[in-house]
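Morning run. Coffee first, then this:
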Amino acid sequence: PRTVSETRTFKPRTYPVRRARVMGLASCFRPRDMSDDTPTKKRKTGSTLEANRGIFTSDENAMIDKLLGCGQDHLFSSWPAPGTDDDDKRRFLAQAAVCDAGYPGGIAQYVANAKKLLQDSKEGVNPFDGWTPAVPDGIVVEYASKEHVELESEGMREVGSAAFVLVAGGLGERLGYSGIKVELPCERSTDSCYLQLYIQSILALQQRSAGEMPAHRSAKDVGIPLAIMTSDDTHAKTLDLLERNDYFDAKKEQVTLIKQEKVPCLTNNDAHLALKDTDPYTLQTKPHGHGDVHALLHTSGLLDRWSAAGKKWVVFFQDTNSLVFRVVPGALGVSKQKGFVFNSLCVPRKAKEAIGAITELTHTDGRKMTVNVEYNQLDPLLRATINKDGDVNNDKGVSPFPGNINQLIVSLEEYKTQLAKTGGQIEEFVNPKYKDASKTAFKSPTRLECMMQDYPKSLDASACVGFTVFDNWVGYSPVKNSPADGVGKFKGGNPTHTATSGEMEFYGCAAKVMELAGAEMAAPVDFAANDIVVPLGPKVVLHPSFACTFEELKGKAGKGVKVTSASSALIVEGAGVKIESLELDGALVIKACPGAFVTVKGLKVSNKGWRFEKCGADAPEIDRLRGFVIEKDETEELVFDQPGAYTVP
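And here it is:
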């Protein structure tokens, strides 16, 4: 065995194949103004405002009328006479116009909805009054089982007819990260960021589905499109990340950015819009929630374009779940097999665990819906209706109500038809923090919010809505908490959902999948970083190009693979790689370009490998988030950079 770091680059025995790539421009859409264009009757608000009318355009005056028409006179009460702060006044009206255009029905509809929801909140209206819960229809899938393999096969026949939607409107502040979350590396062995992982996963699915003609002609001719919902906070940085990295090998026209606008904050139960304390010409605004993705898809015209291209499914996923594409093919197979128009990807959930639950609700008037119910609402609802003990575990040790992870699959045609009826508007909620029990004053301004998983609330009872459950280890590893918050979760015996745990779960998932395929993997050991303890086993990174399904992976890296130490690292990239027999104690990287077919047979690698070392507070931000750095002492790297047939050693 070689015991020094080296890279071997192999020369091909066949003529190189060149690939052509079509380039284009990414699109950015904002929602269409859905408000009523009928002018609102002017209301008298004082001579100063009326004196200012002459300096504004007709559109600016119309915006003033809209605000006055929905009771927002206070916004203009301190305006000085014309000639003072005129540019600031125009700036205020321009911001108000953006808010008006970004909300279905406009700012007047926003205020009307807010008044109703704030009144309900003050009166303590129970949103589930009259509803009785039950366990909904769905499938629990055991990964690598015969059923799972069949579902993956079904899903792979459908994936060329899918479009993907990434919800990425948030910054990494909650994580303690200064950048956008999709730029955060999901692991440090290759430093692949989340957006890179997602796009390369889509391209791998596309490459496999494009060969199936004519059923998947859409994948061959159009590709599998990706829409990314951004916000003011993330839009420019997301576009920059894509352009700096040449769209991670996707065609530019495959990727569309749809930008979400914020909504105004509210100061009281009368739904008065809030101004910034430091600037009387700027509305306070906050994100409306990821439920806006439905309106954006509707108003952008993307759904019509996808439908015309032969797409049949839309798959929604979140910004920092590195494992989601391991379960997408199987879940898509469930949607096809069960005829689901809406399929929630779920994980097993302990009773009273702090995660929303998918629940079937039946109203006394006969209405039915299958929706997400937040954990703090589910237990009292069960106690008040069907079970005096509330949310309890079943004989398998989990709640019968599965945990919602906000990875969703919808049937495109039904989805498009429904959004045409609703304009994409999703049922909203408000959560004001009151100063006291009278509920007459807020501690700070609030706003209306909506969640994308609440889309089924708009469907009628005949809609086929269900769920697909996979175990956490293979489908759910979100990174959403800072190191400090992670410590609190760890001490409470809960998943930490930090960058530290996310990286280890990424490696652990790949290692376990290989074990299920027949490989021998060294057992993990405990590793402490950032005051939490995580299992650290072999660092296995299987690039999306290597295998998209369990059955494919099993045919490429199963029996015959033996990783003898938990400190080992195995990185595999390339669809043409097949590992028949390998004994590894150290670090091995195999990279094969498209068209390179590599058979690893009888290879033994032993070297010093890589060490995970704790880092201090003076380390770079990305390392501090994890609490460690990787010291790469020795690595055997086998590179096949041109097409050909190769055997190693």
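Confidence is low (pLDDT under 50) at residues 12-45. Good start to the day.
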